[in-house]
Structures are given as structure tokens and as C-alpha cells.
Automatic annotation (TrEMBL):
One Pfam family matching this protein: CxxCxxCC
InterPro entries: Puta_zinc/iron-chelating_dom (IPR005358)
PANTHER family xref list: PUTATIVE-RELATED, YKGJ FAMILY CYSTEINE CLUSTER PROTEIN
Protein name, as recorded: YkgJ family cysteine cluster protein
Length: 164
């Protein structure tokens, strides 16, 4: 898996123009069964992907923390929300709460998430490839394929399966 992760930024760069063109067409004319196709591609990919061998999302980017995430996770630690924010979060250029540092503080050396049961919504949903109306998150997906091998593979399969 390490070799795959290392090679991914260059692979994604090589595919960037092709991906941009594909998503531009997809946004204009999404097929009627897009939600269904994405669900299938997502399930297929994650049946053979072991995120515990990777954890590249937790190591390199980390999630946004919503107010609900902050409330749930600080309760888990029996911390005041303010103290939790001070300890672990900062506000980014889009005014969202994000991690102060990466790799994520809650990631263990064994790639397990120490707050798995209460982890942020964005972590539960990453890389969002089973999201309904997938064409709406093209920009985000073009970023995610640079660091998530599963998202990269799903987009490659999309291009073969969906003829636009
Ligand atoms: S979601 Fe993607 S980047 Fe994150 S651990 Fe799984 S394969 Fe790796
Ligand atoms: S909270 Fe857990 S799942 Fe989310 S980035 Fe941190 S270690 Fe990964």
C-alpha cells in the first residue's frame, strides 16, 4: 500500500486534465442512474480496500469538524467544548474548524482511530464516493484522488463505465 500512496500524486496529476473534462461533462449531463452506479462502484472498491493499511486521509488532511462533531467528541473526552477546540482545532481560511496538525492526533500507530465511535461526520463519509448527486462534488473529488487510492480507483472505473 505504501508504494501505491507514494505513486498517487503523480498518477493523479497525469489524469488531471482527463478527469477535469470528464467531470465537466458529468456536471452538464449526469446520467439518470448516477446514484446507483456510484453506490455500486463505491461498494465494490471498499470491499477490496483495507483502510487500516492506508489511513492516508488521516495522515495528510483530516476532516472538518462541525458543531455537532465538536459537541459529541468533547463530551466523549469529558472536556468543555472550548477546551477541546483550544487543544486540537483551528479555524481555516473557509472559517471551518479543522485539525491543528496532521497526522490527526486521534490516529494510532496501528492506523486505528482512537475516537472511531464518535469520529467527525466527514471522516465517516470520506471519500464521499457514495454521495448522491456525485457530480456536485467534482472539485473536492479532484483533490481527493491525489491522496485516496480508493477514490482514485473509483474515478478511473467511473470513466470506463459512464459514457458521456
Ligand atoms: S478512505 Fe482512502 S485515503 Fe482514507 S484510508 Fe481509506 S483508502 Fe486510504
Ligand atoms: S478522527 Fe479518526 S478517522 Fe478522523 S482523521 Fe482522525 S484518526 Fe482519522
Amino acid at each position: 500500500m505504501e508504494d501505491v500512496i507514494k505513486a498517487l500524486p503523480q498518477l493523479a496529476k497525469d489524469k488531471e486534465n482527463e478527469n477535469k473534462k470528464f467531470f465537466a461533462k458529468l456536471r452538464k449531463k449526469p446520467p439518470k442512474n448516477l446514484d446507483y452506479v456510484m453506490q455500486e462502484l463505491h461498494e465494490e472498491e471498499f470491499e477490496r480496500t483495507d483502510c487500516l493499511e492506508c489511513a492516508n486521509c488521516c495522515k495528510t488532511t483530516g476532516p472538518l469538524f462541525t458543531d455537532k462533531d465538536i459537541s459529541r467528541i468533547s463530551k466523549h473526552f469529558k472536556m468543555k467544548e472550548f477546551d477541546f477546540i483550544q487543544a486540537f482545532l483551528r479555524i481555516d481560511e473557509d472559517k471551518d474548524y479543522v485539525l491543528q496538525t496532521t497526522p490527526c492526533h486521534f490516529l494510532g500507530a496501528d492506523n486505528y482511530c482512537s475516537i472511531y465511535e464518535v469520529r467527525p461526520k466527514a471522516c465517516r463519509e470520506f471519500p464521499h464516493t457514495d454521495r448522491k448527486k456525485f457530480q456536485q462534488i467534482a472539485k473536492l473529488t479532484l483533490e481527493n484522488v491525489k491522496m485516496c487510492p480508493a477514490a482514485f480507483n473509483i474515478v478511473e472505473k467511473m470513466k470506463r463505465r459512464i459514457k458521456l
